[in-house]
Design brief:
There is one protein chain. This protein is an alpha+beta fold. It has 3 domains: 118 residues, no CATH class; 193 residues; 53 residues, no CATH class. It is built from 15 helices and 7 strands. α10 runs antiparallel to α11, α11 packs antiparallel against α12 and α14 packs across α15.
């Protein structure tokens, strides 16, 4: 007997709907992790309009699971030839397989009576998929905030800062609305009235946090002395982490508002549901791009600072690596933050140049530039011009020794020279 699986993709996730055993076999055959859409969500999709009359008797037997689209899982859309609708923005399709065969889902079929042909059901499916995806991100951010630092809670609740204080209050109200939604299964007018002004406060806080990050980067850039740069970079490292946490909380609350908003539109103006979902998706992408641009500028500045410190590593063997280390911590933190929000990042963090590499470069430069290079060697080795020859010999000996240690797997922490 053949079994059919209905697939719906909104570009961020893939809903797999069908008999529970078939859905499980399909996901197993593709090696895809998934989340249960839950019987209530699935019933709301299948229980709309003509779908009830056509497939009502099958609702109890159906199962729905959600797969987050990654670079690998997104290939399923192409593999199974899902077709995108210009009206809904959703890609849909049906695959048929032989019962009991794990890798039997190969045939693409058309099912005229499928829920995929029902506009209202599709719009509702799109709503649920968007909500599941946003709640996934919200959970990621909750985990992110939990491991960042205890200081983050102090920042978020700092009553001395009016902007952050307002956002904290808004957060309480939104969480209450989410609890009511969970209990009642809908967002009524009363619940929505409590949160509908929240987006302005959250947007104001987000803008404020982005300005703080820009200010920190500019402060680091203005430091010319390596000693001052090391101190400022260290301070910036912890403050950037805290402001990234504020941004993450803003994004989390914005997603929560969108989840509530979709339910409210479904309740009040169901015919506008699909258009509203697409609008929220575009607005969310705009927010991601704004945050990405701002934080990438921060990364560029911190990498530039690391480059400056690397260039002076011979003159400042202790302070320069400290600057680079702080810079790398900031960059790593930014890209961890990006990962939680779903921002794609193709980065290479700046790495501290090892002492032996910097010393070898200085040696080669000394040989090429003559007296200027000897001056550099003298400054590095605390030698006089009369002892430039012995200083160069000492430097070469140090390079060989450090190279030996590197081959032995030891870290290079020497400050001799």
């Amino acid at each position: 007997m053949d079994n059919e699986i209905q697939l719906i993709s909104d570009g961020d996730g893939l809903a797999v709907i069908g008999d529970a055993a078939d859905v499980e076999r399909f996901l197993l055959s593709e090696g895809l992790p998934s989340k249960d859409l839950g019987p209530q969500r699935l019933k709301s999709v299948l229980g709309i309009g003509t779908v009830v009359a056509q497939e009502g008797s099958e609702i109890a037997a159906n199962s729905g699971r959600w797969v987050q689209l990654t670079q690998e899982s997104a290939q399923l859309v192409k593999k199974y030839g899902l077709r995108e609708s210009s009206k809904t923005g959703l890609s849909t399709g049906v695959v048929k397989g032989h019962k009991g065969q794990i890798r039997g889902f190969v045939e693409i079929v058309k099912v005229p009576r499928s829920l995929l042909t029902n506009p209202a059901a599709l719009a509702n499916a799109g709503r649920i998929m968007a909500q599941v995806a946003m709640q996934q991100t919200m959970d990621e951010i909750t985990d992110y905030l939990a491991v960042i630092d205890e200081k983050v809670d102090d920042v978020l609740r700092a009553q001395k800062d009016a902007v952050l204080a307002r956002m904290v209050g808004v957060g309480f109200v939104i969480e209450e609305a989410m609890t009511l939604r969970e209990q009642r299964g809908r967002v009524d007018e009363v619940t929505w009235s409590k949160v509908q002004t929240a987006p302005m406060t959250i947007a104001e806080t987000q803008a404020y946090a982005l300005r703080q990050l820009d200010a920190l980067a500019e402060k680091v850039e203005r430091k010319a002395k390596i000693g001052d740069l090391a101190t400022t970079a260290k301070e910036t490292e912890s403050m950037v982490r805290e402001w990234l946490a504020v941004l993450a909380r803003c994004f989390q609350l914005q997603d929560a508002i969108a989840v509530l908003e979709l339910d409210r539109v479904l309740d009040a103006s169901p015919e506008e549901l699909n258009g509203h979902r697409l609008g929220l998706k575009a607005a969310r992408q705009d927010r991601l791009e704004l945050i990405s641009r701002s934080t990438e500028r921060l990364v560029a500045r911190m990498n530039a600072v690391a480059g400056t410190a690397n260039a002076k590593v011979l003159l400042h063997p202790t302070k320069s690596p400290a600057v680079v280390q702080s810079s790398n911590h900031v960059v790593t933190g930014v890209y961890d933050f990006h990962g939680r929000l779903g921002i794609a990042s193709g980065h290479q963090s700046s790495e501290a140049r090892r002492w032996v590499e910097a010393a070898a470069e200085a040696r080669d430069k000394a040989l090429e530039t003559g007296a200027k290079g000897v001056d550099a060697a003298r400054s590095f080795g605390n030698e006089t011009l009369d002892r430039a020859g012995s200083a160069k010999a000492k430097l070469s000996s140090g390079i060989a020794e450090r190279a030996r240690r590197l081959r032995g797997g030891e870290g290079v922490r020497d400050k001799e020279g």
